[in-house]
Amino acid sequence: MKILLFLLIFITHFALSDDMGKQLAQDNGCLACHSVKTKVLGPSYQDVAKKYKNDKKAKTMLIQKIKNGGTGNWGNIPMPGHPKIKNEDLDKIVTWILSI
Ligand code: HEC
């Protein structure tokens, strides 16, 4: 019975794409420089979500920015590029960030 319960929690956990984006951000080291609520080295994800709330092109732009790295939107500290992360994973991460 315990195993069944664990399995159920496991499946629902990964079925939720929001959670998956968060997990991917964690696995890819994004949270070393970002947190949801407070600025670390990079802007908080809450601020990012607020900034691009009404911007329909934000998702594509942010995916490119995370992939290639860049600076200038939040200050002078550059974000390094992340060329190894798959586009579909970046899509999930950015969807999660913009949903915060
Ligand atoms: C070494 C620190 C560092 C790491 C690691 C890092 N970031 Fe950043 N991130 C930054 C900085 C600094 C900025 C601000 C760049 C700017 O001013 O345009 C930023 C900006 C951003 C933005 C906003 C971009 C914009 O143009 O408004 C997003 C979204 C973002 N990061 C997501 C991520 C994700 C997802 C990861 C993990 C794959 C990640 N970051 C890893 C430092 C980092």
The CATH fourth-level homologous superfamily: Cytochrome c-like domain
- Put simply, the count of helices is 5
Radius of gyration equals 15 Å
Strand content: under 5%
Low-confidence stretches: none
CATH class: Mainly Alpha
Ligand names: heme C
| Tally of distinct domains | 1
Structural class: mainly alpha
Secondary-structure element series = HHHHH
- What coarse outline follows from CA principal-axis ratios? elongated
CATH architectural grouping: Orthogonal Bundle
Share of residues in helices: 55-70%
Distance between the termini: 35 Å
Average pLDDT value?
A: 91
| CATH topology-level name | Cytochrome Bc1 Complex, Chain D, domain 2
